Amino acid sequence: MPSPTQRHVLCALVQNVPGVLAHISGMLASRGFNIDSLAVGETENTALSRMTFVVVGDDRILEQVRKQLEKIVTVVRVIDVSSRDFVERDLLLVKVRSPSGPQRAEVRELVDIFRGRIVDVGPDELMIEISGRENKVQAFIERIRPYGISELVRTGRIAMVRSDADLGSEDESSHAASA
């Protein structure tokens, strides 16, 4: 029985060299794979970067994406994070219209409820930072929207497998590369 379409979180450990992001995103696009979310950043090893992808599809699509990533020379390792016990986060910065007075107090209360932070205060706007799972960030956006969002930016998803998870699982693939 085919598995239903779902969101998969993949992490690729890649060599930190110019052009890696363009090469990987171009390869995925040329094969018709859509990247729902992408975050790239440094790791504890300055020679490596971590790319976290969210792709939508069934297990067959996931396997094709993994195999294509593993063929790229600059890719050191690919992990299907979503098949394991993991922690994920999205980050949101949002400017909300909020003149002084009762409306500003309501916005501050919402920020507190969602465990966010006000990171900038203007005469008629507040800039708010929220981090957490995708559904938490999305719920905050929906609750704050009636106040008037003037600008919004989100990161791609980042994720890590929990420390107590079995790191030698069959879901982890290694690419023979010397980094």
Give a structural overview.
This protein has 179 residues and is α+β, with helices and mostly antiparallel strands. The protein folds into 2 domains: 89 residues, ACT domain (Alpha-Beta Plaits); 72 residues, ACT-like. Chain A, domain 2 (Alpha-Beta Plaits), CATH 3.30.70. Strands 2-3-1-4-10 form a 5-stranded antiparallel sheet, covered by helices on one side. The chain is elongated, with a radius of gyration of 19 Å. InterPro entries: Acetalactate_synth_ssu (IPR004789), Acetolactate_synth/TF_NikR_C (IPR027271), Acetolactate_synth_ssu_C (IPR019455), ACT-like_dom_sf (IPR045865), ACT_dom (IPR002912), AHAS_ACT (IPR039557), AHAS_small-like_ACT (IPR054480). This is Acetolactate synthase small subunit. Catalyzes the conversion of 2 pyruvate molecules into acetolactate in the first common step of the biosynthetic pathway of the branched-amino acids such as leucine, isoleucine, and valine. Pfam families: ACT_AHAS_ss, ALS_ss_C. GO terms for molecular function: acetolactate synthase activity; acetolactate synthase regulator activity.
Instruction: Going across the biggest sheet, name each strand in turn.
Output: 2-3-1-4-10
Low-pLDDT residue intervals, each spanning 5 or more residues: 167-179
Q: Briefly note the CATH topology name of the largest domain.
A: Alpha-Beta Plaits
Tell me the number of helical segments per DSSP (H or I, 4 or more residues long): 4
CATH-defined superfamily of the largest domain: ACT domain
CATH architecture of the largest domain: 2-Layer Sandwich
The overall pLDDT, averaged over residues, is 87
What is the helix content?
25-40%
Q: Report the principal-axis shape.
A: elongated
The overall number of domains is 2
- N-to-C span: 40 Å
**Structural classification:** alpha+beta
CA-based gyration radius: 19 Å
Number of strands: 10
Major beta sheet, specifics? 5 strands, antiparallel
What would CATH call the class of the largest domain?
Alpha Beta
Strand content: 35-45%
